[in-house]
Design a protein that fits this description.
There is one protein chain. The protein has 455 residues and is of the alpha/beta class. The chain is built from ten helices and eleven strands. Helix 2 runs antiparallel to helix 3, helix 6 runs antiparallel to helix 7 and helix 8 packs across helix 9. It starts with a helix and ends in a 6-residue tail after the last helix. Bound molecules: beta-D-glucopyranose. Beta-D-glucopyranose binds next to loops. Beta-D-glucopyranose (BGC) binds next to loops.
């Protein structure tokens, strides 16, 4: 016994001093492991629950990654983004351009994701896989503004997109996800956010929206496409039996309404409200309740003209059009996104809700990989899917998009994390997985090798 203790004492210092490998965790609430990284990597703050050893080459993602936890600001902060544009842009019209907002525009590539991909590729030794991995940096994804600390990045992005639009002569789209509701992710744990309803969450959220608006205002020449609050309204359709969701209902509606009204005033932000996916709101019993919620929210918000439609399958794995139904979809005639969209569309007409859609296919390349349709966390064996395009062949679908930046994690598999969700520990969930939103190297490599169409 004593010798065992002595042996333990002998190895303990080495253990405590051990440095984290590239991509491993190196800090966060409750973390007791290594807090420094091997040479070539730096321990970088991601969120209060997670710091990660990112390769030094480029910090693993953007230049604005804070090294300290962001504090919630109680008032608008001074924008760090540019505040003026050199040549006067044509002013935005308060009436949206008719038709598909993607038409005639180029989607600007976010440098944050490109940096994540470059850092990841640098750690892939197989030359063919590395080249394929690098090509992902050229595929546009959305940027998730999942904390208020990230909002100033938007001004920088827009300034660059504006400059590119002028130099290339092709107007640019910057794609963003508005994602910071108080009591966020009310039916799950993995993506719980920084604001809580009990602690001034609604005011904090309004401030978050005001800051987004302030960043966008100087750049009327850039078109912004925004997905509004993944999962929030869908949770209000099916998860009001979860106390956190029923408690959040009024606040979610007030916050989403505020978001779409304020962004609508800008005149260059085209919005798609998140509408879950075929395996969620696409069940026949959920379709009408979902449509009723979208219709009433839209009407009560004053039918904002820049709400263009709905976003489906965000961060999920469903096919747009499945060759044959995945067996797990049994019992739902809407077994893919196209069936879901076609079933939902007629139900939206009563309020004049615009029946246009964008569909995430970023991780939908491989089908029939889930044990249950409800499995959403880092599903094993997923591959990158159909490339973003506005040439969808379906009138109702404005664009196929990549909304979830592939390689960013859905949620941690660490059961002792405050944000552990059991879905991330299921046998069809890839493990070990870091915290939501942080880089998951092994998952990224699989997305690359299993991409369909191939990269
Ligand atoms: C996470 C966010 C992250 C987003 C995109 C979500 O699941 O909660 O933090 O930004 O995915 O990766």
């Amino acid at each position: 016994m004593l010798s065992a203790v002595l042996a333990l004492a002998a190895i303990l210092p080495a253990f405590v001093n051990a440095q984290g490998a590239v991509w491993s965790q190196c800090g966060g609430t409750g973390w007791t492991g290594a807090t420094t990284c091997v040479s070539g990597a730096t321990c970088t703050f991601s969120n209060p629950f997670y710091s990660q050893c990112l390769p030094n080459s480029n910090g693993g993602g953007g230049t604005t990654t804070p090294t300290n936890p962001p504090t919630t600001s109680s008032g608008p902060t001074t924008s760090t983004g540019p505040t003026s544009v050199s040549s006067a842009p044509s002013g935005p019209s308060q009436t949206p351009a008719a038709g598909n907002p993607y038409a005639g525009h180029n989607i600007w590539l976010t440098p944050f994701y490109a940096a994540e991909v470059a850092a990841a590729a640098a750690n892939i030794s197989d030359a063919t896989t590395k080249a394929k991995a690098l090509s992902v940096a050229k595929i546009p994804t959305f940027t998730w503004f999942d904390t208020i600390a990230k909002v100033p990045d938007l001004g920088t992005y827009l300034a660059n997109a504006s400059a590119l639009g002028k130099s290339s002569g092709t107007p640019q789209i910057v794609q963003i996800i508005v994602y910071d509701l108080p009591d966020r992710d009310c039916a799950a744990a993995a993506s719980n956010g920084e604001f809580s309803i009990a602690n001034g969450g609604q005011a904090n959220y309004f401030n978050y929206i005001d800051q987004l608006v302030a960043q966008i205002k100087p750049f009327p020449d850039v078109r912004v496409v925004a997905i509004i609050e993944p999962d929030s309204l869908a949770n209000l359709v099916t998860n009001l039996s979860v106390q956190k969701c029923s408690n959040a209902q009024t606040t979610y509606l007030a916050c989403v309404t505020y978001a779409i009204q304020q962004l609508n005033k800008l005149g260059n932000v085209y919005m798609y409200l998140d509408a879950g996916h075929a395996g969620w709101l696409g069940w026949p019993a959920n379709l009408q309740p979902a449509a009723t919620l979208f219709n009433s929210l839209f009407k009560n918000a004053g039918s904002p003209s820049f709400v263009r439609g709905l976003a489906t399958n965000v961060a999920n794995y469903n096919a747009l059009s499945a060759a044959t139904p995945d067996p797990i979809t049994q019992g739902n005639s809407n077994y893919d996104e196209i069936h879901y969209i076609n079933a939902l569309t007629p139900l939206l007409s009563s309020s004049g809700f615009p029946p246009h859609f964008i569909v995430d296919q970023g991780r939908s390349g491989v089908q029939n990989i889930r044990q249950q349709w409800g499995d959403w966390c880092n599903v094993k064996g997923a591959g990158f899917g159909t490339r973003p395009t506005s040439n969808t062949g379906v009138t109702a679908i404005d664009a196929i998009v990549w909304a979830k930046p592939g390689g960013e994690c859905d949620g941690t598999s660490n059961t002792s994390s405050a944000r552990f969700d059991f879905h991330c520990g299921l046998s069809d969930a890839d493990q070990p997985a870091p915290e939501a939103g942080t880089w998951f190297q092994e998952y990224f490599t699989t997305l690359v090798t299993k991409a369909n169409p191939a990269l």
